[in-house]
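Standup notes
- DV: blocked on the single-chain target, sequence here:
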Amino acid sequence: MNSGTIVNEQYLKGSLVILRETFEGSPVGASSAYLDREIGLFSTLEEVDADHASTSVNGSTIAAHTEHLKFYVDRLREFMEGRADEVNWEQSWLIETVNEEEWSFLKQAVAKSYEQLLLSIAGVSDWDENNIGDMVAIIAHSAYHLGAIRQIAKSVEPKR
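- DV (later): unblocked, structure below
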């Protein structure tokens, strides 16, 4: 192996570290790719109630970003598993507001989508250009929406 070659195992290990940190946060005391250590999507969503998730800031809500992120992860996972047909991406922005029950369900659905993604990633035997592209897209897109959600959350949190 030449030193300029990325081995599938190395690529996967590095990618999973960032993916897990995006959703789960970094381990306590560990370094982080993000400025806010130990903070990920799941812990951020747990700090938000349905009213705050439904509050529009600059035309978007946490609920909308959360649904869109879930939809995106599900579709990219399907592409990694061989899906070839087109996606109606407009469907990913249909939810803007939620009640407490819907918010709880959406948070659980995001966690399930993430778990299914990890299972799909574990099943990839050939990290070809398409699979690598999908993985990078999932990480980048998820990181973007984590940032957007965290910024909205800061804008709608109760004033003390």
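- Follow-up: The chain is about 60% helix and 0% strand.
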